[in-house]
Amino acid sequence: MSFTAEVRDELARCEPTCEYCGLATLAALTRVCGTLSITGSGGYRLAVATETGAVARTMIALTHSILKLKTEFTVRRSVLHKVRNYLITLPDQPGLDKALVLLGILDRRHGLVSGIPRHVVARPCCRLSYIRGALIAGGFVADPKGDFHLEVAVQGEDLAQALSKLIAQEGVHARVNRRRSAYAVYIKSAEDICRLLEAVGARRSVEDIQDARAMKSVKNDVNRRVNAEVANQTRSAGAAQHQLELIAELKARGMRDALPRALADFCDLREAYPDLSLRDLGQMAEPPLSKSALYHRVLRLEKLLDES
Fold it and tell me: In this protein, which residues make up the domain named Sporulation transcription regulator WhiA N-terminal (predicted)?
């Protein structure tokens, strides 16, 4: 099961807070993945198509318990994509037109509603239920082991902007981007994704994301330390090679045997331990010397060669 499917399944099992929360969830489901058509007799037909079992279960359960309407259920299997497609249909029947108004799909004059009606999300808990329904119907949450990304695909810019504003009321910044004929309301911040999922009830999924964040943080820290160590070793190796070249040049000029005792001792140490850093080389001296003391001896060797 994909991470998105796990999130949707967890959200579909959340219990409503008030008696109107179920209506808000159902309203979001129908708006995000439903299609409304007019029948030949002037009535309506509402069809919700989905590949997610959680959407189908939630749609049927809420329609029966809240709207008291008849539904038709069809399962189709895609040979090409090897997935099941669920089709839930509310055929033309008495009370369907009023239900469409109640769900915020039609206004009282039976015109199409473009945004999210205020009566559907009047309470804070209903607002969260609507967001939950949108996530169940059209949400995508990337596997946190990769990039952090959450989005909801909807039809119509007005609905996308309204959903973005609804999410903003939870202290989460969601952007809107056009995707061909649809719109995506998306979030890329792991912190914001966790805050939103926590608010709508996906606590287990939030724990998975936080665990992934912690693991990424550890890996990034290890990588930084390894990269820093490699860089230090590269610099040390380069510095040691430069010091060996200084010593070789002193020998070539006949200056090696005439060096002061401190500089001669340094040359002996460097030749004995050509791969050590100055800090580690200092520990091999008797008595031990600091990195700064050895560095100053390197500078004195350079000065001697420059002046000769």
Answer: 21-101
Within 13 A of 24's CA, how many CA atoms are on the CB side?
Answer: 28
How many contiguous H segments (helices) and E segments (strands) does the chain have? 11, 8
* Among 220, 161, 170, CA closest to 194: 170
Task: Please state, as a whole number, how many other Cβ atoms lie within 10 Å of the Cβ of residue 239.
Answer: 14
Q: What are phi and psi of 19, to 5 degrees?
A: -70, -15
DSSP letter for 41, please: T
- What SS3 state is found at 155? coil
Which DSSP string do the residues of 172-214 spell out, in sequence order?
---EEEEETTEEEEEE--HHHHHHHHHHHT-HHHHHHHHHHHH
Rounded to 5 degrees, φ, ψ at 253 are -90, 0
Burial (Cβ within 10 Å: 0-12, 13-18, ≥19) of residue 62: buried
- Give the pTM: 0.72
Q: Is 153 helix (H, G, I), strand (E, B) or coil?
A: strand
- Structure confidence by residue, pLDDT tens digits, 218-248: 887 787 888 777 777 777 777 888 888 888 8
- Cα first-last separation, the chain: 76
Q: Which residues contact 238 (CB under 8 A, 6 or more apart)?
A: none
